[in-house]
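Renewal narrative, Specific Aim 1. Our central claim is that a sequence can be written position by position from structural information alone. The example that follows is taken directly from our test logs and has not been curated for this report. It begins with the structure tokens describing the chain, in the order in which they were read.
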């Protein structure tokens, strides 16, 4: 197959040739053609916060130009709990790095609503569906719990609530 010469910056509408000579889809902007490395020193603490926890943003629209993903760390100090909250329309996946955090939500599927506790440890994963009121707890008196969080929105949505009751949840979109 003969190779057609396409000058840098030009193309047929579907592909363009970069200054390095590579052909890439025309819909991919220059910022999204490379991998982005975020070292621990590059984590950003300017995120939506829940009382009792510290969130550090790693991958987002703000840090790497992500369009539909947010990822970062959450640190829960020893003997503490977050405020009750939910993450809006975002699905949330949690990976436990260290400690033994607990995740508390209101189980409304039985006869009477009751608090349900999910006990975790290093290596465990937890899935939090959209809008589910919950809180994180670290009952250990000496060891901070650290988790990695990924969300299906590029920003860390945090809606703080008075309690775990669904009556305070407003579904949007």
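The sequence written for that structure reads:
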């Amino acid at each position: 197959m003969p190779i057609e010469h396409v000058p840098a910056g030009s193309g047929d509408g579907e592909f363009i040739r970069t200054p390095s000579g590579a052909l890439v889809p025309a819909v991919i902007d220059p910022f999204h053609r490379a991998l982005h490395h975020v070292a621990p020193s590059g984590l950003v603490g300017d995120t939506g916060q829940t009382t009792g926890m510290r969130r550090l943003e790693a991958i987002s629209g703000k840090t790497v130009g992500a369009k539909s993903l947010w990822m970062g760390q959450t640190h829960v100090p020893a003997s503490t709990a977050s405020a009750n909250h939910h993450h809006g329309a975002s699905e949330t996946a949690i990976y436990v790095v260290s400690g033994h955090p607990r995740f508390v939500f209101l189980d409304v599927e039985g006869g009477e609503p009751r608090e349900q506790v999910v006990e975790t440890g290093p290596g465990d994963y937890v899935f939090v569906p959209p809008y589910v009121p919950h809180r994180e707890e670290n009952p250990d008196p000496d060891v901070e719990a650290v988790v990695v969080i990924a969300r299906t929105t590029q920003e860390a949505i945090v809606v703080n609530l008075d309690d775990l009751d669904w009556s305070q949840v407003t579904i949007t979109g």
